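During the practical work, I selected for study one protein's amino acid sequence and its C-alpha cells, as given directly below:
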Amino acid sequence: MAVPTVSRHLPVFRRCVEADDTAVLVARCLRPDRPLQGEFLLLLTQRRLVVTQETRLLRRLRLHLNAELRHLGNVNWNPDVQLSAVELAATAIDGVRERFWIRVGHPKQLWHLDALLSRVFRPKSLPRPTPAAAAG
C-alpha cells in the first residue's frame, strides 16, 4: 500500500485508536454490496476495527466504521482462493451488517490473513480444568 494513502488516513485513525493499541492489519477493501462507493481503508487493531473512505472527486476522508471488537457481533470471514480475497463481515452495535472484501496478491497471503483474523477474533481461551484437577 502506498505511504501517501496511509498518511492521508492517519489523522482519522489516530482519533479513533488509543496510542497503546497495536495495529494488526491495514488493508484496502471494497464493500461487495456497494461496489460503486469506491475503496475503503481498513485498520484492525487488537481492540478496534476502523474503516475510512476517501471520496473520489474531492478526496475527502469519511469515517465509515469505528467499533471496539467486543461490540461487533456475528463476525465471520470467508477466504476465496480463486479470487485471492477474503470477505469479512460483522454486525455493528447499531445492528448494521458490514461486509468488506479484502484482496490479497498471493494465496500464501490469503492464508496468512485468515490466520491473523482467527487470532484477533477467536483468541485462544484459557484451558478448562480437568475433572481430576478440580477434584484434587
About this structure: The two ends are 55 Å apart (CA to CA). Residues 83 and 89 are 17 Å apart (CA to CA). The chain has a mean pLDDT of 85. The beta strands are 23-29, 40-45, 48-54, 61-68, 73-80, 85-91, 97-103.
